[in-house]
Amino acid sequence: MVLLADIQTGSSWDHITGECVDGQLRGSQLPVLGPLRHSTVAEVVAAQPSAELHLPRQNLLQRIASRLLFRLAGGKVLPPHFHATMGEADGRLPRHEVGLGVWTQSQARFYPLAHLRERGGVVVDRLDGRGLVVYLDPQSGSPQAIWHEAPGARIEGEVVVLGDGARLHAGKLRQQGKPESYPQLPHQTLTRWYGFSLTFHGVTIAGTTPP
């Protein structure tokens, strides 16, 4: 995975949890400002009309290196030196399985993309005592999760229809008799299984019995 280092103290930080794992501030916890979600440029512009799109300018060597790394990742191959820095693999899923990892302070669960597709692109679940809806966004195709108490859910075109009558479209929640709003989001990240399982010990997998 990735560790961030700060120049001031020389400490290393987990980029998912915000925990300091090495250095002068080891054991400290950075506040997580808010959950991240993948979205399309159209969604961003609709929410923030003045948003600017910044694309990296790569030289020829950087472009070649990027394509090689993309092919390695697409082939589910890690560079040999990666394995020496990793902990013991959790064999419940293939190491490179892609899915949405969702977590709270006490629980973490991994939703494989294959699991979401098998269930029509949307799963209603409970995590840490709260209602959770995990779905493949009809517009961006990326997995998303929201806190919401619903007896069921389905996808109709570009809309996620929740069992309580609410509707999700372009990241916004529409409920009868209420103004349009953004739903509450849990902490979540689109990642590979090996990274999420190494970050959160005791993680459960959607659709399977707990270990």
H/I helix tally = 5
Distance between the termini: 23 Å
Can you write the helix and strand succession as a string? EEEHHHEEHEEEEEEEEHE
* Overall helicity: 10-25%
Mean pLDDT: 88
Largest sheet: 4 strands, mixed
Tell me which CATH architecture of the domain at 98-205 applies here.
3-layer Sandwich
Task: Please state the overall shape, judged from the principal axes of the Cα atoms.
Answer: globular
Return the structural class: alpha+beta
Question: What is the rounded Rg?
Answer: 19 Å
Low-confidence stretches: none
Strand content: 25-35%
CATH topology of the domain at 98-205: Rieske Iron-sulfur Protein
The CATH C-level name of the domain at 98-205 is Mainly Beta
Topology diagram in text:
Layout: E1 3-5, E2 12-14, E3 20-22, H1 41-47, H2 60-74, H3 80-83, E4 98-103, E5 108-112, H4 113-118, E6 122-127, E7 130-136, E8 143-147, E9 153-156, E10 159-162, E11 167-169, E12 172-174, E13 187-192, H5 193-199, E14 204-205
Describe this structure in words.
The protein has 211 residues and is α+β, with helices and mostly antiparallel strands. It is built from 5 helices and 14 strands. The protein has helices at residues 41-47, 60-74, 80-83, 113-118, 193-199, and strands at residues 3-5, 12-14, 20-22, 98-103, 108-112, 122-127, 130-136, 143-147, 153-156, 159-162, 167-169, 172-174, 187-192, 204-205. A hairpin with a 5-residue loop joins strand 2 (12-14) and strand 3 (20-22). The longest helix has 15 residues, at 60-74. The protein is globular and about 55 Å long. The two termini are 23 Å apart. The mean pLDDT is 88.
